[in-house]
Amino acid sequence: MLPDGPRVLVVGGGPTGLATAALLAQQGVASLLVERRTEPHPLPRAVHLDDEVMRVLQQVGVAGSLLPLTRPALGMRLLDADLRTMVEFGRSEPVGVHGYPQASMFHQPDLDRLLREHVASLPDVQVREGVELVGLAGTRATLRDVTTGQVDEVAVDAVLGCDGAHSTVRELLGTGWRDLGFEERWLVVDVRRTEPLGTWDGVHQVCDPRRPSTYMQVGEDRYRWEFRLHDGESAADVSVAELLRPWTDRPVEVVRSVEYVFRARLAGRWRDGRVLLLGDAAHQTPPFVGQGLGSGLRDAANLSWKLAAVLHGAADDLLDSYETERAPHAEALIRTAITVGWAMTGGQDRAAHVRRAALALLCRLPRLTRTVLDRGTPPLRPGPAVAKGRPAGRLLPQPRPGADDRLGRGW
Q1: Distance between CA 226 and CA 189 in Å, rounded?
Q2: What is the DSSP string of 357-368?
């Protein structure tokens, strides 16, 4: 049984749900986390974390273990259809102002494992796998065991929907999506190869409207390609070997090849009383700036202390600041991803040579390169918990990893 005191139901055992449960436990809030899967997801999905999000994972308690398993990325290159570099945005500093590399590539199952192990060590978190949410009346939840069919009811003080793009919590709340005008089908290919391919250690964006694509090295022996599918084309219609041939003629082990629909949208509302949405349940972004998982972990960091404060006696109005702060921030990152997606698909028409020359000229300006790669994420807008004017809404720097821990939690 859970310890006495306020209880939160966390629906979804991905990184956002696990991080939220861990952060609540630090605030003395016990939670029950349910996940309908009976085994961890074995394949990688997210592959990028920035220094701000590594700082969140430091707060959770897993950054130190994850960092040796990550691979810093040097920046981004825009390539033409023949894989020639049009522009290179190199990073000005290897380490960001938050004490970690500005961009780290990683294998998501590594992060999932570390989070699960950490949460399993916390007495204030109970995890039930193979259990799904099937009903919700306020904060009274109906749960079903996916194996036995047994149904239970649990009364909690808050329900957090961390259950992904097809969120049951969001459906039960009856809130739809606000579409930001982007939907494309892409083929995601993950491969392994023990011998290095010898490519540049950064993200490659191929600006070819006929077949825009993305390539990056994720780990010591892991690589990812993403290729946009044509209208009416399915994953079964394309040859992975043909798609990879321009990149390498060496044999590789294809770990997975799967079609994804990249969308840009926000949930119509993120809160109904003490039922709240986090992560992909609240927002979905194209992957072109690598902020999907990071946005979910930012949700966890933003909401966990506020919910803990409310459950310890603060006014419920504090929870109003969660959506007013996080929704504009998430939307700004989504719109940045849409812009990068547009740049990728607009590179090979009759004006391509003009764009190439213009980009080459512009990228000699250090300020532009810093704007593209080193600007960080936008500040939080003024609201119930954010004052107007600088530096309100901006993160204070962390000079080195662990400095936050030495300062201690709280104000």
Answers
A1: 6
A2: HHHHHHTT-HHH
For 8-94, where are the alpha helices, taking DSSP H only? 15-26, 51-60, 63-66
Share of the chain above pLDDT 70, in %: 91
The closest alpha carbon to 305, from 331, 333, 325, 281, belongs to: 325
Residue 199 amino acid letter: T
pLDDT band for 96, please (50, 70, 90 cuts): confident
Q: Cα–Cα distance between 215 and 77 in angstroms, integer?
A: 10
pLDDT one-digit tens code per residue, 74-91: 888 989 889 999 888 887
Tokens of 198: 């010898």
Per the rule left: phi > 0, alpha: psi between -120 and 50, beta: everything else, 99 is: left
Helices first, then strands: H and E counts in the chain: 11, 20
The answer for residues whose C-beta is within 8 angstroms of residue 40's C-beta and 6 or more apart is 109, 112, 113, 116
User: Which contiguous run of DSSP H or E holds residue 184?
Assistant: strand 177-192
Q: Taking the model in full, what pTM does it have?
A: 0.92
Angle between helices 15-26 and 108-120 (to 10 degrees): 30
| pLDDT category of residue 165 using cuts at 50, 70 and 90 | very high
What is the DSSP-derived secondary structure letter of residue 280? G
Q: Quick one: which of 184, 165, 213, 153 has its CA closest to 32?
A: 153
Higher pLDDT, 2 or 108: 108
Most distant pair of Cα atoms in the chain: their distance:
68
Do 292 and 280 touch, CB atoms closer than 8 A?
yes
CA distance 298 to 57: 10
All residues at 6 or more sequence positions from 396 whose CB lies less than 8 Å from its CB, including other chains: none
**Amino acid making up residue 294:** G
DSSP reduced 3-state for 278? coil
Is the Cβ–Cβ distance between 132 and 143 less than 8 Å? yes
CA–CA dist 403, 98 (Å, integer) = 9
Enumerate residues 6+ apart whose C-beta is below 8 A from 99.
Answer: 51, 54, 55, 398, 399, 400, 401, 402, 403
Q: Report DSSP letters for 186-253, one per residue.
A: EEEEEEE-SS-----SSEEEE--TTS-EEEEE-SSSEEEEEEEPPTT--GGGS-HHHHHTTT--S--E
- Rounded to an integer, the average pLDDT of 401-410 is 86
